[in-house]
Design a protein that fits this description.
This protein is mostly helical. The chain has helices spanning 2-27, 34-41, 45-51, 55-78, 86-103, 105-116, 125-151, 161-181, 192-201. 22% of the residues are buried.
Length: 214
Amino acid sequence: MARKTKENSELTRQRLIGAAHQVFLTRGVSRTTMEHIAVQAGVTRGAIYWHFSNKLDLFQAMREQVLLPLIDRMDDTLLVEGCEDALTCIENFLCGTVQSLVDSVETRQVYEILMIKCEYVDEFATVLQQILCNCSDIEEKLRLIYERAEAQEQLHPLRDPAQLAMDTHLFFIGLLHMWVKDTDGNQFRHQAIELVKAHMNLRRRKSTLTQPSS
């Protein structure tokens, strides 16, 4: 009986996260109330507060469902010891992230909420600080891989791994923002993979840049 109760509780929690996801997407985060989420989920507000203390708590749970697998995949892709082609590790990670947006409606919608449906003010200012910390972690992992690429003599001479890591990070954040906003798919979505490959080719020693398709 206790196991069944725990399973039902988790199902309710996941339903609430899904409901918050849908309401955030439709109304925007700032215009969403716990009442809106309760109605979407078909539960009372009391049921929500049993699982989540406030809207920020729900938002964080939704965010973690998408970002934690991304972080795990980043470690698996970028931090593979003995990889003979460090730049390809970076390229595979960036292309894989784009592909996850293509393949998963849920991932795509959560990115849309995070990037264009949320104002990071008041209690959500703490989320912005977390995002900045995550960005620093990503940039540090990229730096380590660029240092590996330098040791493998893959980089153009006089290229600084730390600067390359920052440049790649800022490029990719910008690309993701434009990818999410390009809902018709006419400007960025159809050529995102080619843009990533071109970006990485610019870093390779004695390589020919692959032009993105028009």
